[in-house]
Amino acid sequence: MPRIQYFVAASLDGFIATTTDDLGWLLQFDGFEGGAESYNDFMSGVGCIVMGGETFAWLMEHEPRKWPYTGTPSYVFTHHEYRAPDGADITFVRGDVQEFMADFRRDAGDRNIWVVGGGSLAAQFADAGLLDEIILSVIPVVLGAGKRLLPMKGPTPALELAACRTLGRGIVELRYLLPAASAPQA
To answer: Distance of CA 46 to CAs 59, 64, 80, 138, 145, Å?
Structure first.
């Protein structure tokens, strides 16, 4: 069964962006050894993308008119009116993530669903028991404050470490299964 995955990078102290959505701290690590291979391997299994409106707005501001996920059905959760870039297969939605699970699964087919971000959207999936896996690249930078990795309503049971590897420039990639995901699925 396809998995719902949160593939994300965070600072050592657990933030995915500064309070002003600055990613300069992360972008300074572009091209690190093993990064492209990790991303390409991950993307080869992705059949559908889900992201929050702030993530979409950041992409459009920093990559105007260029959609990085051409050919992959994408959903953007937002309360704002946006226009999709040319050639992008984007559906703009609002509401509870559970309302759209059938659409995500249909579009993903036998491939995985990537919750791109942000942390609040990923937390909605996790709080609903829908998030199967967190693939976290820990970046060796301390931000002190910012947008949290996964601002859930409460603590989770212990996650299961499925894999761990060191990448270039001191980056560590961790793969965690959430408790519902670690149980055998029928």
So the answer is: 19, 23, 26, 21, 31
Mapped onto helix, strand or coil, the DSSP state of residue 171 is coil
The span from the CA of 182 to the CA of 163, in Å, is: 13
Q: Is the pTM of this model over 0.85?
A: yes
Distance of CA 107 to the CA centre of its chain: 17
How many domains does the chain divide into?
1
pLDDT tens for 21-41 read 999 999 999 999 999 999 999
Whether omega for the bond prior to residue 146 falls within 30 degrees of 0, making it cis, is no
From the DSSP assignment, how many helices (H) and strands (E) are in the chain? 6, 10
Host domain of residue 100: 4-145
Residue 170: its pLDDT value, please?
96
Domain membership of residue 160 (yes or no) is: no
